[in-house]
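Two quick folds needed for the group meeting slides. Do the first one here.
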Amino acid sequence: MERGMFVANLTKDLGLRVGELAARDARVVFKGNRQYLQFDPQTWDLVLNENLDREELCGSTEPCVLSFRVLLKNPLRFYQAELRVIDINDHAPEFPAREMLLKISEVTPPGKIFPLKMAQDLDTGSHGIQSYAVSENPHFHVLTRNRSDGKKFPELVLDKALDREKQDQLRLKLTAVDGGSPPRSGTTEIQIVVLDINDNSPEFAQELYEVQVPENNPIGSLLITVSARDLDTGSFGEVSYGLSQDDDVNEPFEINTKTGEIRLKSMLDFEAFQFYHVDVEALDGGGLTGKCSLMVQVLDVNDNAPEVILSSLNSPIPENLPGVIVAVFSVSDADSGNNQQVTCSIDDNLPFLLRPSMENFYTLETDGALDRESRTEYNITITVSDMGTPRLTTQHTITVQVSDINDNAPAFTQTSYTLFVHENNSPALYIGTISATDSDSGSNAHIIYSLLPPHDPQLGDGL
């Protein structure tokens, strides 16, 4: 959908009055700095603020759901909502390489299965890969298998025995087809080298290796060493190792082909991936392979500081009014567990209170009446710390100004004045000056003077 397209009529969905969203200054608040939705300023319909890429937002996670909140002010209220991004078939299957190499002994019996590298399709569900097919030939066909995580992978099945003396190489085209309408496809070439007799395949000491790694492990650090042996002799018994990383073309691991040591080749990120499934392959000199699986669990490290996101700021605020909402803000932390838990505080010596309103949202309110004549401005520092080890802290400072109300009466500089004037004076004779002050500001401090009727009738109205 393009930017500006209609998403929802929240006035109807929330049972509000026409114009209430505008009157209450409604806002859409997403976690982080991205703003995927906004209100149309004319209709107050909820519309798309930017084009959405489901694969960028959610990867392979399905359903792809973005949580957000609708904030209504005056009176304050939050609504929790979710935006589901529906996949379209905008990606074709891709294999990790243009060519696969298989070395198969000529004595391999029909029915033998050879696992192939699976293709990747960034789309999900029915738009993902549905089947594999191989070009027509007399020796092989392809089976499409389902992995435990729902992904489909191909297996090459030998139908007719090979004869190296008749044909020492074969080239087949492997095609992956997705479930779109129309479907998209991707291809790779399988090069098959027919070998002489090699009747033992490498076997790993374990079928499954598991390891846990902190996300801040340095590049080059050793994760684990795998080991396989082959009962054959000579080149047929020499084993080399490789990784078949089918979850992502750019997985952050590398293996020493001779020793089986698996090390990090790039810095891990728990917030991006928590688990990796890697197929480890042992290849002997005759082209036979053995496989095992490596499961890598990434452990979270407190490497993200909390964030403070200000939703609204009410400044200036009038003096003498307690309980005024000054600001509404949210706090978040991209880590997990204790590393994600945060505490929020402000300085104790300020006349303000911090109140949690809902999950990770806070309001800043005045604690009692403020006096502009005592202080006209406050700098309030919001401190947010997570519960990790060591703790990470973020500070956000907001400035709040205090506006004046007319809460101070004028005061004369003296309680009484004595002025002397000669009789028979001429009109408009200057007698003296009286003065008063007002501690308010602006028009509230402007003073108008007037004379009340004299108490003594003999004085007349000569002033």
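Then this one, please, same format:
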Amino acid sequence: MAIIVPSYKEEIDILETTLRVLASHRHAKACYDVFLAMEARDPNGVAVATSLIDLFKHKFRDLQFTLHPNGIEGEAPGKSSNVSWAAKAVEKKYVNQPDWTDVLITVMDSDTHLLSQYFELIFQNHLRTRGEIGLSDVTFYMPPIVFDRNASRVPRLVRMADLMWCGAGLSCFNGRARRDAVAIPTAVYTISLSLACLVGGWDTGSEAIGEDLHMLLKCYFATGGHLRTISIPSPASQCNVSTGKSGIRGWAANHQARYSQGLRHMWGSLDTGFAVRQWFQLSQRRDSGSKSPFGRESSLPSHVLLRLKLGQHSVHQGEVKRYTWRNAVVFTRLFEAHFLPNHLFLVLLASALYSSLIHPDNQWQILSYALDMTSYMRAAGFALMTIYFVIFYEKYHQVCISAREHEMRRAGLYEEMEDDFSHRKRWTLTAIVDYFIFPISGTIFGSIPLFQAIVSHFWTEKLVYLVSAKPVKADKVREQWKDGV
């Protein structure tokens, strides 16, 4: 298992915690090959990576760092170009080994905490899939996410924005593997090295700013729509955006940081155009046989090319269709992510403006009836969404907290991380107020950033990539960790 942890100007405490959690897994020393993907633009990148390697070098099968150069022509600074550089190092290290098709690549954010169960379930699914398909494991593995670490210490609007983000991911989670299912990854996912080679690796341009969704779409269309997406029932623990500042200025800074993160997320609406282009090219792929659609075959060894071509042939089975139910599901997911938040905001705004006008006679009665009906539908939708979160999400949050507490106790890390468990209680005033501000939080951190991104795309597709602000451990805890490693 190759694990890529991209980092740019991240606090060393964040990375220490992530590696300590990974090192607590029972198969870490035998199976985990960790790549710290650092940036040359980060003046402390090499020093941080070297320090972490000294601390954890005996905890994993291998631990190294890659240094993504600055200023490569055609590349845009960001997570995708950094991961692409690290993935090339993974490919160079493993692609000539006899069992290279069994190498799995996990990409995870620097603040993500994963349970050992996540990797164990992936290994099981991978072996089963290899037995079914043969030469290629064209599967995209991903966990749901949960913001369960510092949610009680961030402003309410920020907390609810992330909770809605988590709920959106859960909406496409599949308890059972279905061939027509398409789930959207968030922050963490795993693919096989052979699939990464088949699609030509990670894109590095500004259109790939939504790195996780972009890679899913790239793999999906490169395999002619035959990519399997499997949701792994082992949630990834995430931190809410937090600047660490206190008082009024800290409150404002946290909201500003969350808006910047929302704008970066919504800038990924560029992926809708990417998906449309790839969809139109599907018929061309059908006629091109087993040739890779992304043109990186010539850089791979001949025996690797043979395996990939045979694997791609077994996956495609001569059928690459443009009009399928799965393609409709993919574009439905894109509509939910990149159109629906803005559509809802504009409909509400237009309805409010129209309702404030004096209606001219009876010629607009049908429009009035339509607006009244849709307002009732929106109210019903909000009520159902609230019920969903109160009944299902609250239980999900509790289960996630319990599972992580159990594993941290088993690993002897619970006392050090006791403050990193943000519990929620269903029937409290705090929870009730949270749900009532759903529309406000969704508009500020969803609809408005999406509207800004879409309008900005008329002029440019480039956005300055800002790393999300994360909470930092106290120095005394950091020293305890160093002594205990």
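Slide caption for protein two: The mean pLDDT is 85.
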